[in-house]
Amino acid sequence: MSSPLAGRRLSALVVSYRSGDLAGACVRSLRARWEEAGGAPGDLEVVVVDNASPGREDAALAALEQGGARVLRSSSNLGYAGGMNLALAHSRGGPGDLVAFLNPDLWFPPAGGLDAAGNAIAALVRALDARPDAALAGPAAFLDPGCTLHHPAPVDPTPADLAASVSAAVSVPAARAYAARRSRAARAWWSAREPRDAELLSGACLLARRGALAELDPVFDPRYPLYFEDTDLCRRARAAGRALLFVPAARVVHLWARSSGAGGEQDADALERYFRSRAEFLERFHGAGGRALVEQAEAAASQVPPERHHRPIHPLTELGELAGPPTLAWERDADAVVELGMAPTWILAAGAPVRGNRWTCPPEAWEWFFAGRYFARALDRASGALLGAWTFAKTAPARREPLA
């Protein structure tokens, strides 16, 4: 089988904020997969932007430079969009060359050499080559190195969807309806085997032809301080008549919430940036009416007492406080999916397809979970019928050191 990377050039762009060690692991895994699939080492360019990280990032950034990356140290936090645009401006290549936009908390698992089903870079390049009309291609993202626990499927954040998710946080009937709709879409996404057109791709990992990006200048709009910049890009690409490709054979590990700081000490700042970006997105694509719809839903939700927020939509089996991974068991063998989230409404959940009547969380996924309470449910994959629902608290802290 010929290599899809032979004679190709790729500029891999990474924006890091307090994530230098993770960025180093990401780049090392990318280089290994590039060469594994037949890419020439000199044809892979890596540009890393450090977004004015506080603390001690010097050693991690120096290690990236020693490994051959070009590191740009910004004097201010440009946000993900501004950082990516800076990295792109300092990269090199012609219209037919490739560009990858990568979060620092990505890791490319080893597998398969030239086999497109095992090498994420090879699979993405092959899929993009087969679709000249496509602007962007994105992989399947997993929480664990074994690629068993899928990230939540992306959902186009229309005003109706955002308002429904707000209502779901305070109303059990609304939560049941919203979770059922989102779960149906997620099960189809997680079950996909062939490249398919998508409405939205995650900006955590995107591959593009440099020539297609020239049609979308600026690639990322810097008015988004954090979040929604990828949604904006996907909207503009589709409006320009370009397709977005989801490539299930391309598998990457995305270590949840490391690059944004969610779940850690950066929560408040990340949340404030989210709301600013959301307001910008709604105003731009849906006008004052769309923004008002979401704000009205939030105003109504704010009148509901806090103790009535995020109520369970199913009866729950309590598994207690756990230091090690939980095992979930249900009564009958089934072609099932386990959904795992941090609220008993499952409006945002990771998923693991399962055959049988039990599932044990992979230890290599469990170690990355933050300490806290989690909620899991098992559903029949075809019908969505409930097989069981559980809750437990993880007592051990999350792993911090990057993957090798």
Biggest sheet descriptor: 9 strands, mixed
Number of strands: 14
Average the pLDDT over all residues and give the rounded result.
Answer: 93
Helix content: 25-40%
Low-confidence stretches: 260-266
User: Could you give the order of the helices and strands?
Assistant: EHEHEHEEHEHHEEHHEHEEEHEE
Number of helices: 10
Query: Class of the domain at 10-143 and 189-254 in CATH?
Result: Alpha Beta
Could you outline the blueprint of secondary structure elements for this entry?
Elements: E1 10-16, H1 20-36, E2 44-50, H2 58-66, E3 70-73, H3 79-89, E4 98-102, E5 106-107, H4 120-129, E6 134-142, H5 159-168, H6 172-191, E7 196-197, E8 205-209, H7 210-213, H8 229-239, E9 243-254, H9 267-302, E10 317-322, E11 327-341, E12 350-360, H10 363-366, E13 372-380, E14 386-394
Parallel strand pairs: 1-2, 1-4, 2-3, 6-9, 10-14
Antiparallel strand pairs: 4-8, 5-9, 6-8, 7-9, 11-12, 11-13, 13-14
